[in-house]
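Quick one:
INPUT:
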């Protein structure tokens, strides 16, 4: 084949390709999405709407969200009175004076906010320091702002020997001062 014939054939094939591509491009544009997302033609829905529609389709009807309830105080708020006790899930601020012991009920949690505290335990078992992930035994110091968990009743904290200032402790759960 001569080079002029090859060139002519190439120009015709490319020209036909461009012409056909232009025709098919027009029909392809019509097959696309006509509206923007979020319009009436293509709505955007939330997960809660989809969940409601699924509940309706399954026959469960609609679900209404529940409102949270607040626990009642029942008059158990304590501010460091001697030989007093409290059992509540609310946080109570307690002041422990030198010579006093703050004894926890089972499951109570203490955070020493101010002062120098040590663990009190009648047996060899200690208290869980959830902040450091350690077991603190009788007589060992408690770090300020450390969350202490008391798994059993009868254990507690007291002011370190030789310290004349009191402790400020956040308490959640039951306790007594001895």
């Amino acid at each position: 084949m001569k080079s002029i014939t090859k060139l002519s054939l190439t120009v015709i094939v490319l020209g036909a390709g461009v012409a056909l591509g232009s025709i098919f491009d027009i029909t392809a544009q019509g097959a696309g999405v006509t509206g923007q997302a979020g319009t009436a033609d293509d709505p955007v829905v939330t997960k809660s709407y989809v969940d409601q529609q699924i509940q309706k389709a399954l026959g469960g009807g609609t679900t209404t969200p529940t409102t949270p309830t607040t626990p009642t105080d029942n008059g158990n708020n304590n501010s460091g009175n001697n030989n007093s006790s409290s059992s509540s899930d609310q946080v109570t601020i307690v002041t422990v004076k030198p010579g006093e012991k703050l004894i926890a009920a089972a499951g109570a949690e203490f955070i020493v906010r101010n002062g120098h505290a040590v663990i009190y335990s009648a047996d060899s078992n200690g208290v869980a320091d959830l902040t450091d992930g350690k077991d603190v035994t009788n007589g060992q110091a408690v770090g300020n702002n450390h969350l202490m968990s008391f798994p059993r009743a009868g254990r507690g904290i007291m002011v370190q020997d030789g310290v004349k200032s009191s402790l400020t402790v956040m308490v959640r759960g039951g306790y007594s001062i001895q």
